[in-house]
Design goal:
Elements (H helix, E strand, L loop, with lengths): L33 H25 L2 E11 L2 E4 L4 E6 L6 E2 L4 E5 L2 H82 L5 H93 L1 E3 L4 E4 L8 E2 L4 E6 L4 E8 L11 E6 L4 E10 L25 E8 L14 E7 L2
Antiparallel strand pairs: 1-10, 1-14, 2-9, 3-5, 3-8, 4-7, 5-6, 7-9, 10-13, 11-12, 11-14, 12-13
Length: 417
């Protein structure tokens, strides 16, 4: 670059024109440049703000990618043995609770049900006949006992009457003898007047007649005693017979007890037959396998004509409307975590984050609950950070937005404050 300098008109003639190059300094580089310093300062402020924001955002968050969707896996199995007659669903088919899934051949169980009905009818008939026999046996026994009691009472009365006759006959005999002894001396004595003697004689004759009559009565009394003794023996025999009748009646009473026990046994057989009928009815109903819950059929492993055993798995029904997330957090992340806190779940399938809350925290680590828990008593102990399962319940998700299936991978984040 050339610059011409004018020094004045008067000296123009004396000054020789010259050309001088003007050199400019280059702009400063690096931190010496004010613009660079300004940009770095502004960027530092922005970076600091971002770091502070991230710190404030993540300081109350605990995240883990060791998480998956869980749900109720309902195993469908057969409760009875049989041959599969129909399979009414396919894999991945949506079913409702109570919908028929599989039908087994019911003919064997229908026959068992008919047999149980016949056994119940037979048991009820036997119980009714036993109920009729018990009152009849009881009435017969009561009648026999009453008759035996009456015979015993009559025999005892005959015995008492016979004993009374004996005592009476003895008393009459003694009285006749006493009268005879008393009137005999009066007849032999003559110390009385004739009139008195005649009276005494007449009295003596009357006394003699009375004595003779008394003697005859005595003989009759003696005979009566013998008859009374015979009657007494007969009465005793009647008493023994009556006692034997009582023993027989008591034996009949035992028969009543036996009849009652037999009736109770037949009533128990009726109840047993009813229980067998109910069991046969249930087995017949079990030949129709229905869905216990709403869900999707998965892992179907049954075909028509297959023979299935009792308890054999046929398929699985998964209720997709009731799922949750099981997140395995490190034990160091549980310091401020508790039930009820908010949570976020990012599902890998959809790349969308869904909200929810912590429902509960497991009571033990996953290693302790595993099939083969670690044994640290061997001396080869290595400290490893353990993980604890945390159940996260999601807020309702519309089906047109997303459908979560058990086993899906997710990233779970718990907001501790």
């Amino acid at each position: 670059m050339s610059i011409e300098i004018e020094v004045g008109l008067e000296n123009a003639s004396r000054v020789k024109p010259s050309t001088e190059e003007l050199k400019l300094e280059p702009p400063p580089k690096g931190l010496a440049n004010p613009k660079t310093r300004g940009m770095l300062f502004g960027g530092g402020i922005v970076l600091l703000a971002v770091i502070v924001g991230l710190f404030l955002f993540y300081r109350n968050r605990e995240s883990t990618d060791d998480a998956q969707v869980d749900g109720h896996i309902t195993q469908i199995s057969s409760k009875v043995y049989g041959r599969v007659g129909e399979v009414l669903v396919n894999d991945n088919q949506q079913v409702k609770a109570g919908q028929v899934l599989v039908k087994l051949d019911p003919r064997d169980y229908q026959a068992a049900l008919d047999q149980a009905k016949a056994q119940l009818a037979l048991a009820e008939t036997d119980a009714q006949s036993a109920g009729i026999d018990v009152p009849r046996t009881q009435l017969n026994t009561q009648s026999g006992t009453s008759s035996a009691d009456a015979q015993l009472a009559g025999s005892q009365a005959d015995l008492a009457w016979a004993q009374a006759n004996v005592e009476k006959s003895k008393a009459n005999a003694l009285l006749g003898q006493a009268d005879l002894e008393r009137y005999t001396p009066l007849m032999q004595k003559g110390e009385i007047s004739k009139q008195q003697y005649d009276a005494a004689k007449a009295n003596a004759d009357a006394t003699a007649s009375a004595l003779k009559a008394d003697q005859e009565k005595l003989v009759q009394a003696e005979r009566g005693v013998e008859i009374a003794k015979a009657q007494l023996d007969a009465a005793r025999a009647h008493v023994q017979q009556a006692q034997a009748g009582i023993v027989s009646a008591k034996a009949d009473t035992k028969q009543v007890v036996m009849r009652q026990a037999d009736a109770r046994g037949k009533i128990a057989k009726v109840q047993q037959a009813r229980a067998g009928l109910e069991a046969a009815q249930l087995n017949l109903e079990y030949t129709t396998v229905v869905a216990p819950v709403d869900g999707v059929v998965t892992h179907k492993q049954v075909e028509v004509g297959q023979i299935v055993q009792q308890g054999q798995g046929l398929m699985v029904v998964v209720p997709l409307q009731d799922v949750w997330v099981t997140a395995n957090f490190k034990e160091t992340q549980l310091r401020s975590m508790k039930a009820g806190q908010k949570a976020e779940v990012k599902v890998d399938t959809y790349g969308t984050t869904f909200s929810g809350h912590i429902d509960s925290i497991a009571g033990a680590t996953g290693a302790v609950l595993s099939l083969l828990p670690p044994e640290n008593a061997t001396g080869n102990y290595v400290k490893v950070v353990q993980r604890v399962p945390v159940k996260i319940v999601l807020d309702p998700i519309p089906q047109d937005q997303a459908i979560l299936r058990p086993g899906m991978n997710v990233v779970a984040t718990a907001i501790t404050k």
